[in-house]
Amino acid sequence: MPIKNRIAEMKEEIAAWRQDFHEHPELQFDTHRTSARVAELLWEFGCDEVVTGIGRTGVVGVIKGKSDSSGKVIGLRADMDALPILEATGVDYASKTPGKMHACGHDGHTAMLLGGAKYLAETRNFDGTAIVIFQPAEEGGAGGKEMCDDGLMERFRIQEVYGLHNMPGIPVGHFAIRTGTIMAAADEFEITVTGKGGHAAYPHLCIDTTVVASHIVLAVQTIASRVVDPLKQAVVSVCAFHTDGNAHNVIPQTVTMRGTVRTMDPEVQDQVEQQLKDIVTGTAKAHGAVAEVDYMRGYPMTVNAPEQTDFVADVARRVTGNIDDNTPSQMGAEDFSYMLNERPGAYIFMGVGDTAKLHHPAYNFNDDAIPSGASWWAEIIESRMPAA
Predict the structure, then answer these.
(1) CB neighbours of 344 closer than 8 A, spacing ≥ 6?
(2) CA-CA distance, 130 to 116, in Å (whole number)?
(3) In Å, what is the CA distance from 258 to each residue of 186, 195, 213, 217, 275?
(4) What values do phi and psi take at 176, rounded to 5?
(5) C-alpha to C-alpha distance for 312 and 162, rounded to whole angstroms
(6) I want to staple 126 with a disulfide (CB 3.0 to 4.6 A). Which of 65, 208, 222, 336 is the partner?
């Protein structure tokens, strides 16, 4: 079953929805316009039920098949939120809100799932129930967790759940997936170093926090290179460094640093957290300073279940004939992981060709990928719950 003819016919309509979302980006849970438009379209398609306000501004549509002898219920999830980035695409439908743009392709994810939902509502050629999930706040807000905490899985009796993300650099019509951990856990940390501030001309009377913090930045790099098993993955990045002053002749009393830890294994995650705390406090103490570490666990690892991974890889193979089912894991993170922690399922990457990279000001979702993605969504339902 290649790309579905009906979905191919809808390409321009789906692209118009996508470009409208692109023109009106919204951040985190403030997806009020987007959520309202999604709900409006789902009602127009003839969904059996449309529920808003799940996970604050999430939207859920229920589409029943021609029969329900299987009793199966499958969830399909797309994210809706944009990023706080100033757009530089130059397209006619560029963001009308300066400082906000769809730089990660969530506009495309939402539009493709809407296309799949319209097709499924028209045809209903399946035995069971399809649940289409439109989630806010993937970009740092843990909207997936909010929807799960709001009873998403239990309320709609979801048994399996599937997600998709576009991927620049992979050709249009190609998919990539792997069994097991496909994306990393993403933790955050904040380090506060306190020394003894004073006049820069008399450093011997001070405890220079800038020097201490610099040693800490270098020392924590040994976690990945000398502490973690080389056959396992870990990233420790210090991404922000702030002193409590900006004068040329003042040694600051405090320095604050912020960063992220990415891991693929729960034991490594625990190990890195402990080592980070030990190295930071020990390095500070060795220089006569004091350091505090606030370590925050973030999105968990995104782990694909074996059976469901094999299934959606076969779906991709039927839709376009192009699937890499052993793609390398990514050190990026994804809050679809919360849904996969509650129900078996899988997360797949879909090619959008040679575009700018994700989170870049010039990124723009490639509408030529719409038929592949929307057909993949629809084929999951028709294949997993074939008509009786």
Answers:
(1) 160, 161, 305, 307, 308
(2) 11
(3) 13, 18, 11, 10, 16
(4) -145, 135
(5) 9
(6) 65
CA of 354: how far to CAs of 53, 166, 190, 369, in Å? 36, 12, 36, 12
DSSP assignment of 344-361 equals -EEEEEEE--S-PPTT-T
Quick one: tokens of 117?
A: 């939902």
Predicted local confidence at residue 245, as pLDDT: 84
Instruction: Please provide residue 68's backbone torsions phi and psi, each rounded to the nearest 5 degrees.
Output: -145, 40
Asked if 157 contacts 73 with a C-beta cutoff of 8 angstroms, the reply is yes
Q: What letter would DSSP give residue 60?
A: E
What percent of the chain has pLDDT above 90? 98
SS (H, E, C) 87-132: CCCCCCCCCCCCCCECCCCHHHHHHHHHHHHHHHHHHCCEECEEEE
Q: Six-digit token pair at 65? A: 């098949």
Q: What is the pLDDT of residue 82?
A: 98
Place of tokens 């991974």: 309
**Are 115 and 370 within 8 A, CB to CB?**
yes
Kindly report the pTM of this predicted structure: 0.95
φ, ψ of residue 101 in degrees (nearest 5): -160, 160
Cα-based distances in Å from 227 to 190, 220, 295? 21, 10, 18
